[in-house]
Design goal:
Elements (H helix, E strand, L loop, with lengths): L1 E3 L3 H15 L1 H4 L12 E3 L14 H9 L18 E2 L2 E2 L1 E11 L2 E12 L22 H4 L5 E8 L5 H9 L1 H6 L10 E8 L25 H14 L26
Parallel strand pairs: 1-2, 7-8
Antiparallel strand pairs: 3-4, 5-6, 6-7
Helix pairs in contact: 1-3
Length: 258
């Protein structure tokens, strides 16, 4: 779950309640199981009334009830509503790449909630365009005060140490936009694999068999991750209200071959 800084508690609480109800057959047994949902946050106080504590249990439950397969909503929605990126209106973006591995195609997908950077850092295709977009507006003068969340998902069978390496590559993709990772940027990068389904640990056999990719073959996966993080972080949408952040709209989105 992704929410704002002051919404972490209620989001965690509501997610646990939702899971207990949705998966009652799993948790209402004598196995003494517990839940620890992952809740990430970014600060959206410049564009939202964060101190009004607007996130409620009903909001969280509605988001969970709305879960479905297919394309992820992008831009000015959900946790991305109050984001600011390089002084422009930020938001939530996604991208993916297909990689061939051992004669089979796998997917690397990324979700980027961009809330970081300052205007003079902005770089596009290696060109420091942000230096030429300075003006007297408050948004062009804002300093690094945000944070960024990147979630990387893949169906490639990867071990924990490999997923940790994959998560670290998110910083390279974000860095292509020009940010050096400011002091006030709370960067959160997560990576997980949907491969190797197993029974719950307390019901699993003593010996388990897992498929794990060869480390020496992972360079194309790292590149796919960096490329998709860069693209996912490029989402820009218009903002309004008392504090306005305008969108940076590219003439055309670059397309990369898988």
């Amino acid at each position: 779950m992704i929410t704002n800084t002051h919404g972490v508690g209620i989001t965690h609480h509501a997610t646990i309640r939702w899971m207990l109800e949705r998966y009652a057959s799993t948790y209402e047994v004598g196995d003494f199981l517990w839940l620890m949902p992952v809740v990430a946050e970014t600060y959206d106080g410049a564009l939202s009334d964060i101190n009004g504590l607007p996130v409620t249990e009903a909001d969280v439950r509605a988001a969970l009830d709305d879960l479905s397969p297919g394309p992820v909503r992008e831009g000015n929605c959900g946790g991305g509503t109050g984001m600011i990126t390089y002084g422009f209106k930020g938001g939530t973006g996604t991208a993916s790449r297909v990689v061939s591995f051992g004669g089979r195609d796998y997917t690397v997908g990324t979700l980027v909630q961009a809330n970081h950077g300052q205007r003079d850092w902005l770089t596009v295709c290696g060109v420091p365009v942000g230096r030429h977009l300075q003006d007297n507006t408050p948004q062009s003068q804002i300093k690094e005060r945000g944070s960024i969340i990147v979630v990387i998902a893949t169906d490639l069978p990867m071990a924990p140490h490999q997923l940790k390496r994959l998560a670290r590559r998110a910083a390279i993709g974000i860095g292509r936009g020009g940010t050096p990772g400011g002091n006030n940027s709370g960067d959160i990068f997560l990576a997980f694999s949907t491969a190797n389904p197993q029974p719950m640990a307390h019901r699993a056999p003593a010996m388990l068999e897992l498929a794990i990719v060869n480390d020496e073959q992972l360079d194309p996966v790292y590149l796919a991750t960096v490329d998709s993080v860069e693209e996912g972080g490029g989402q820009r949408h218009a903002g309004g209200g008392r504090h306005r952040r305008h969108a940076a709209r590219p003439a055309a989105r670059r397309r990369h071959p898988p």
